[in-house]
Structure formats: structure tokens, C-alpha cells
Specification:
The chain has about 100 residues and is mainly alpha-helical. The protein contains five helices and three strands. The protein is globular. About 25% of the residues are buried.
Length: about 100
Amino acid sequence: MKLKTFRVPWLPFGFDGMALRWVILLKNDDKGLIEHELIHIEQQKKHGFIKYMFLWFFNDYKRALFEAEAFKYGQKYSDDRIIMILVKNYRISHDLAAAAVSIK
């Protein structure tokens, strides 16, 4: 299926973007955000969509790993900035966020 991108005025959880299989929903057209969501699409392909969504919502460590990878390679954020975002926006513990960021 061909990837489709849609601009939307609102997303749940205060997100700026959301990747769902072959659809990316964006509140803005930031290139880094698009790259971030494309990494989530690849993660969903790798793990399978249902398993990915289950892990993202119910496993803090996996969610931290998924987000750390997307922020690091999609938006090119520093490790310190990623840790801050994971702790503040995703309610991941500092230790867990630091562990996720340290995995290459």
C-alpha cells in the first residue's frame, strides 16, 4: 500500500504527528517530524502493526526505545534532549530513558 500523509488540526495525547501503518498524520510539515514518523512506520513493519501498538502503549521500555530511535535519527536530537522529552512528554523514568538512548 502506498504511504499517505495528511495534515490535521488536532491529534490525541498532544502529539504533533502519528504514524499508523501506511498513514502519517501531521499537525505541521516539519521535515524532521516527517522523518520521525517514517521511522515509526519502519518499526511497525519490523514488529507488525498490532504488536508494535501493544508494545508502544503497554511497555514503557519499548516505547522509550521506539521514541528514542525516532527522535535520534528522524529529528537528529541530542541524547540529553531525547531523555528530557521522554521523561516530560512520555512519562518515562529518567533511568529508563537514559538506557533507551544509550542503545545504538
